[in-house]
Specification:
- The chain is mainly alpha-helical and 210 residues long.
- The chain has one domain.
- The protein is 89% helix and 0% strand.
- Helix 2 runs antiparallel to helix 5, helix 5 packs antiparallel against helix 6 and helix 5 runs antiparallel to helix 7.
- It is elongated and about 65 Å long.
Length: 210
Amino acid sequence: MFRKLRELLLKHIQGNVVIYFIVILFFVVGISSGAFTVKALSDQHKGELISYMQNFFQVLNQSTFDAFSVLKQSLVNNLQTGILTWILGVTIIGIPLILLIIVIRGFIIGFTVGFLIEQMGIKGFLFCVFAILPQNLFIIPGIIIIAVIAVSFSVMLIKSKLNKNYQVDMVRQFVLYSTIVAAVFLVILLGSFIEAYITPIFMRFISQYM
């Protein structure tokens, strides 16, 4: 079973290698933009963010952590992104907006990581490794895969409109498209569980040394 899944995944990547390159490129652009934005912040804004982070670490160490609330919020945020991307995939004009979503997700990560490392050095790097990386090992690939599939489906729609000789069963393709997106959501769900129930353990430990 796992061998078949691996073969299907490799076939999918090979068939969409150009789209993967474009989506990942936009994600990297978002990360770079977020990191450079940190450099452009005024000292006042940096001071406000540092104060917010210090308060966050204090609350994290003193209060009881509501993992279920974190899980709900993570699911809402990530499912909104995934569902919006899925909807945009069935529109002809959805491709630019899908890429914009990818840029924004990259920007958020780039800004957060860039700020933590700039202000806290090795401590900030360790916090990123243990508090940001674990869940995003599942969430970000999931969102990228959904974006690639959505762009691919949108391209197929454009071809069918422009080329009358391009024959495809749209209903069957839509069902397949939606099924794959739903399966990828399970990967994102795993990332949300990690963010809610595993990452906080690391965050509490690391925050003691921040």
